[in-house]
Amino acid sequence: MREIASGLLFPEGPIAMDDGSVILVEIARGTLSRVTPDGKIEVIAETGGGPNGAAIGPDGAVYICNNGGFEWHDVNGLLFAGDIADDYSGGRIERVDLKSGKVEVLYTEVNGNPLRGPNDIVFDAHGGFLFTDLGKGYGRLKDRGALFYAKTDGSHVAEMVFPIETANGVGLSPDEDYVYVAETQGARLWRWKLDGPGKLADSGRSGQKNFVASPAGFSFFDSMAVEADGTVCVATIMNGGISRIHPETGDIRHVPTGDPMTTNICFGGADLKTAYITASGTGRLLATDWDTPGLPLNFLNK
Fold first, then answer.
1. Rounded Cα gap, residues 154 and 88, in angstroms
2. What is the pLDDT of residue 302?
3. Which residue, 31, 41, 239, 288, is most buried by CB atoms nearer than 10 A?
């Protein structure tokens, strides 16, 4: 693992750009930021709340899942996210113009139900996006999570799967016939068969047929990326690293990072064989060579 930058305030949602920089969110800082190849940190936009997952859309803008804000805990020098923030500003989907830094709110609710903690996002080839809502914790209570599909012009958002307990990372298979969702609390990877943009091929219930894998031992799952061969790479908390999961067999290979709060991964470089990893607990962006190229992302690597 090579350290690209340090001093980030709980980085997440990395996007490897063609110029060698990495755009990411700093959740605890409330910003969309850029890390240059030499490790400098530049603020692109101040979103407030808790900017979480991020992705480039068909118009070149960055679309952000904003969870509205966490409370924060420093445990022996590691930063951890907790329950809902005292100054929680509401869950929302945002669009950020990279040139001006202008932040536009697209969605705050679905069918009258407010978004509580939008978490991760991925675009399909049709220009729509799937996103998760993890929900929020309130001491002894917590929200139930879900998976949604939306359009970038603010005209359509729909619930696809509910409930998903602590729905976190989301990704698409190479031919976009499956959507994957990582469940944080139980460290479980689920998938659902798709029948077109934002449409499930079946009822979408989280039964045995939707289960892919779960690691042994004490772990939580966070966000994800998919390799070109279909392997699902899920950032793994506590047993800090990346769980490389075969989508058919459920076999897991673990790549340790040395940070128990490993939260996300993306692929970049000319051959998409450089993995960029957010080590959020220690506020670092890491990079390492990967033996398999990442899956090209719609509207970014194509």
1. 23
2. 58
3. 31
